[in-house]
């Protein structure tokens, strides 16, 4: 494995994380720069810098032919896709396989099977993994809806086949409500999507998004690296993650069950890399398979922090058919608690993206903080990429300590020149329900921490700036 | 010396200040206050009492800072035009983006809240609505054009 | 505890470490600057900066009256001494106690008892803790030496009472050698120290320096936080530490025994803070009490890394009579492996101090590195203080991973303008015996890694500098 | 252009170099080589092939760098006197310190290896010994004096 040349087809903090692991393992990390980002900060950690021509993602990070050419030109042995972009693209991983280039990720078959929602659900079912119960096909009549309701138990959700984004769906607590709502939802479906057909599925109250980290090698060994709680979301995107899950808490039986279920899913597709199985869990702690992400995930660090397993390094070892750092499931244990805050260039109240140029960046952190980021003074966040610019991660002896540390770290994280969600995180970390670990995916929508964000003191900041500028006798 | 300041939300401040050794003395609504500056390990720190000190991330001001006609530094690419055209009839980009669609042409009438154009930013389409009833006076952009923040895209002649 | 004002009477990396913990716990960290160090980097982490008048340590960090005055002037509630300076000074802790100021360290009684070598040995003996066997007093005759030799078993060491620094001592493997050497050592003692009296004690071959971390509160709870191996030393000063000890390895019986023995020592003096019990361990894994350090130690981070216990934060909690993060010994477990390299401003070959001004400082570290330091570009290391300027700490899933990470980190640590022992560490990390974890306190003296330090490529460095200076069109 | 360079151990180098766009071209013992410089996130990086890049900690040179009579930067407080007085008869401080004791006065004879003075540095006493047989020619220090590195403390007239 040593000396192999690996191309990182990604940018930002994940490109940095991958380059660190490659360097540490004695491989050659090759990073790319594009014409709309000629000095990307991730190159700081790459041993070699090559140009990926083009100035938008279609021509660069998503352009398979161009990437294949780079692979030829620079004698590349392997590719790490990071997350997003081509990380879960079957065509790409097959193209690499054909060339005999190592794809640092799962085999193309697994990418394909878990990529298609319907297929993955089917595989999960066959593997005996619970999926959200409901109608197998379209439901034409009220009677049928009621029949299914009685079968799977209330409450149920009436949902437009073509639905999405909250439109064309309505929960029903009993037969009467089904009778009352059925026609209305059909009309809504027709008007919103031009198609009236409905589905019926179990309605899960205050659901939790809980996922299990998987690490597998090419010899058929599949391990779980325990779970993550990712229920604090806005626009169906995570903004805070914790491990272990405070909702599962000390219920080791449920923890064991969900982790072993995840291993079942991975084995069903002969999984052979790092990946994540996502579940939805109800208040009754019953959980159902949602999907499997066949890539390294944004929130992988909290798992690394509580288990001590270097997921990225082991993912690389697996790809090159090297033994993992451990030989049995029992070697992996939870030790302490970790929390991750996603730092995004967005308005803390509207939570809408707010790109711009960073004017100032300073960190004053306590012990036990890890900050995976790609921020530096004068770095410009363009609208071309995801607004996430950093991940603030705290590890503590227990949840209370981790909370204390991440809160103090947040006070010591100063990013000037752009709007960020730091102020929103500050509110959440002080909010009673979150502190108690009592929150579901409805948290942002119902508790509405964004409404308690304090306006920043413009005038004082303004005075401090003037004082500094004048005392430095410079226009900065 | 008097300083003027316009923040991201186009809110304007002004304050009087004098340089004193090691600090700046401010006068705001009759009250005097000092802010002390000290360098440590190459970084700037500020203090209100010379005992408690806080790190200053940078000397850069991300908004517009003007001291008696001298513009200090503009980080967020505000066009000066953006400064005095904050009215209901001025459609100004609040973030960099790409213009996707214009629904109106010069001379068209618009009502308050009517969508005039669509701006794509951070992979999302934002409907830019008119802030007033009136007629389109000028259109300074064309579809597909990339725009920085603070750019005056459309001016609307407000109906009296 | 929150809001208490704590004065840190120290500087450098430990002042930073303490300030971080104070801030995180909601206390007010008050740092000092002196007239021979007006801009010390540790103030970056202190909320308040106060002047400690004077330009040498006697007038500043060691001047109790002056410190007591600061405590009055700035309404201080507690003091953290760090290590060195007044950290183990009974007079100081008593002065604070008299004033009702919280000393963040053990009670004065414990400081005193463990401070005096003869008393501490006596206390250990009485507590049933093994000390190095030998003569209780001076040994006048060969016959007496032989009698003791037969009693405690050979090899033994003949040692001048006034001895030290290797002079006036000689090991004897049997009676014959005692007969042969006794007179000679007496002569040597007389000529070197003007006093011929000898002592006899057990001679321990290839000894290991192994110490156990203690954490205790004011309610009588004493916990051990496992051991550290500190056998890589030069001039009797540690330069590399690991936890857990590779020499004890998987011998859990010995680990349990030495850790519980340390707890015994601590309980014997009603210990109520963070501290360390040092032992010497022979090839037979028999160990003997050396001394107890009644302070936080330089190498505390490796213990924090493998156990997840924040020693400094808990030390502060204990001092203010707050509950520790844990309630029982079983909650504390070893998880992974950690290594610490002490980065010193010294010649890598002669290992002699080499102060100076830092011209450049850059770090490019892999994941899992912690660097506790007080370095910044243009920082001047004066001869007034210890040459240690940083501690490079790596945590890994196992020793192999920790070694891999610390080695990669060392390549990414660049300090220009002064000589450092980085090159020496590089040799040691590649040296076979160290890699195998097979080394005793004789390591530096016998393996002599310093002789394999490669000379740095002056000419190339010189060319790179010229290129950079000219390309930047500046004289730097 | 020719550059001269004296390192910490008083070893001297010289090399010829020309500035070319984005790089510097060196000629050493007849061989030509280029070193490329590129800026990234405010830091300098160097490369020999424009593909592999390494971070450059600083532009500061900690030793003495001279380009055709122009001294660039001296970090370690070398006195120019220190440069050409590296002989066995010149006792030069190799690190900053405080002079504790002088055992000789001008005119005294010394033998090679004999301790001439004691310098305290980093809490340790260092015996500074004569590098040659001879007589004390000059003493430029007095007891208790604080000295920086590269200071010529004592000169010894070597015996022929």
Please outline the helices and strands.
The complex is a heterotetramer, with 2 copies of chain A (476 residues) and 2 copies of chain B (160 residues).
Chain A: E1 5-8, H1 12-24, E2 28-34, E3 48-52, H2 64-73, E4 78-80, H3 90-99, E5 102-103, H4 108-115, H5 117-126, H6 142-152, E6 156-164, E7 167-172, H7 175-193, E8 198-202, E9 208-216, E10 222-234, E11 237-243, H8 252-268, E12 274-281, E13 287-293, H9 300-307, H10 311-319, E14 337-344, E15 356-357, E16 360-363, E17 369-373, E18 380-381, E19 388-396, H11 399-411, E20 413-416, H12 422-430, H13 432-436, H14 443-447, H15 458-471
Parallel strand pairs in A: 1-2, 1-4, 2-3, 4-5
Antiparallel strand pairs in A: 6-7, 6-8, 9-10, 9-12, 10-11, 11-14, 12-13, 14-19, 15-18, 16-20, 17-19
Helix pairs in contact in A: 3-4, 6-7, 11-12
Chain B: E1 2-6, E2 12-20, E3 23-28, E4 31-40, E5 43-47, E6 54-56, E7 64-67, E8 70-71, H1 80-84, E9 90-92, E10 97-102, E11 109-110, E12 115-121, E13 124-129, E14 134-139, E15 146-147, E16 152-158
Antiparallel strand pairs in B: 1-2, 1-7, 2-3, 3-4, 4-5, 5-6, 7-8, 9-16, 10-12, 10-15, 11-14, 12-13, 14-16
Short description:
In chain A, 34% of the residues lie in helices and 25% in strands. By secondary structure, chain A is an alpha+beta fold. In chain B, the strands form three sheets. An eight-stranded antiparallel sheet of chain B has the order 6-5-4-3-2-1-7-8, with no helix packed on it. Chain B has a four-stranded antiparallel sheet with strand order 9-16-14-11, with no helix packed on it.
């Amino acid at each position: 494995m040593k000396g192999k040349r690996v191309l990182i087809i990604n940018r930002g903090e994940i490109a940095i994380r991958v380059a660190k692991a490659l360097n540490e393992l004695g491989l050659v990390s090759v990073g790319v720069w594009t014409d709309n980002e000629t000095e990307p900060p991730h190159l700081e950690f790459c041993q070699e810098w090559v140009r990926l021509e083009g100035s938008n993602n279609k021509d660069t990070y998503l352009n398979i032919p161009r990437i294949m050419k780079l692979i030829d030109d620079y004698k590349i042995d392997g590719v790490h896709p990071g997350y997003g972009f081509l990380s879960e693209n079957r065509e790409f991983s097959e193209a690499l396989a054909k060339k005999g280039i190592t794809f640092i990720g799962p085999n193309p078959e697994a990418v394909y099977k878990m990529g298609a929602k319907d297929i993955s659900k089917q595989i999960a079912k066959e593997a005996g993994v619970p999926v959200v119960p409901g109608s197998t096909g379209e439901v034409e009549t009220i009677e049928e809806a009621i029949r299914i309701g009685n079968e799977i138990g209330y409450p149920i959700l009436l949902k437009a086949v073509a639905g999405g984004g909250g439109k064309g769906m309505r929960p029903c607590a009993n037969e009467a409500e089904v009778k009352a709502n059925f026609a209305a939802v059909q009309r809504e479906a027709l008007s919103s999507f031009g198609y009236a057909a409905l589905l019926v599925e179990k309605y899960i109250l205050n659901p939790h998004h809980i996922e299990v980290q998987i690490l597998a090698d090419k010899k058929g060994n599949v391990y779980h690296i325990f779970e993550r709680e990712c229920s604090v979301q806005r626009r169906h995107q995570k903004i805070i993650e914790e491990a272990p899950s405070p909702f599962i808490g000390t219920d080791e039986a449920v923890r064991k069950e969900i982790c072993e279920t995840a291993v079942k899913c991975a084995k069903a597709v002969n999984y052979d890399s790092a990946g994540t199985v996502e579940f939805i869990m109800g208040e009754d702690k019953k959980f159902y398979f949602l999907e499997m992400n066949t890539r390294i995930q944004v929130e992988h660090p909290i798992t690394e922090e509580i288990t001590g397993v270097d997921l990225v390094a082991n993912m690389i070892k697996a790809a090159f058919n090297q033994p993992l750092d451990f030989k049995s499931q029992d070697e992996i244990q939870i030790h302490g608690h970790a929390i991750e805050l996603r730092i995004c260039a967005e308005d803390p109240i509207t939570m809408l993206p707010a790109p711009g140029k960073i004017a100032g960046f300073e960190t004053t952190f306590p012990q036990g903080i890890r900050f995976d980021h790609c921020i530096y003074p004068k770095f410009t966040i363009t609208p071309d990429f995801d607004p996430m610019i950093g991940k603030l991660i705290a590890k503590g002896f227990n949840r209370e300590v981790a909370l204390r540390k991440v809160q103090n770290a947040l006070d010591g994280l100063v990013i000037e020149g752009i709007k960020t969600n730091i102020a929103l995180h500050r509110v959440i970390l002080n909010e009673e329900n979150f502190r108690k670990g009592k929150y579901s995916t409805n948290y942002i929508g119902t508790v509405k921490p964004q409404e308690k964000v304090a306006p920043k003191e413009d005038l004082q900041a303004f005075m401090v700036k003037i004082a500094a500028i004048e005392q430095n006798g410079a226009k900065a | 010396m008097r300083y003027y300041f316009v923040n991201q939300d186009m809110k304007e401040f002004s304050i009087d200040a004098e340089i004193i050794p090691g600090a700046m003395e401010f006068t705001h609504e009759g009250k005097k206050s000092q802010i002390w500056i000290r360098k440590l390990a190459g970084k700037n720190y500020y203090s209100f009492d010379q005992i408690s000190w806080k790190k200053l991330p940078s000397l850069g001001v991300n908004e517009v800072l003007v001291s008696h006609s001298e513009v200090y530094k503009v980080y967020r690419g505000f066009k000066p035009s953006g400064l005095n055209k904050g009215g209901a009839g001025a459609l100004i980009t609040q973030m960099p983006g790409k213009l996707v669609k214009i629904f109106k042409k010069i001379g068209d009438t618009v009502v308050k809240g009517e969508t005039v154009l669509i701006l794509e930013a951070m992979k999302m389409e934002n409907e830019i609505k008119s802030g007033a009833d009136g007629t389109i006076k000028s259109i300074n952009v064309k579809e597909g054009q990339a725009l920085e923040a603070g750019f005056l895209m459309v001016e609307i002649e407000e109906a009296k």
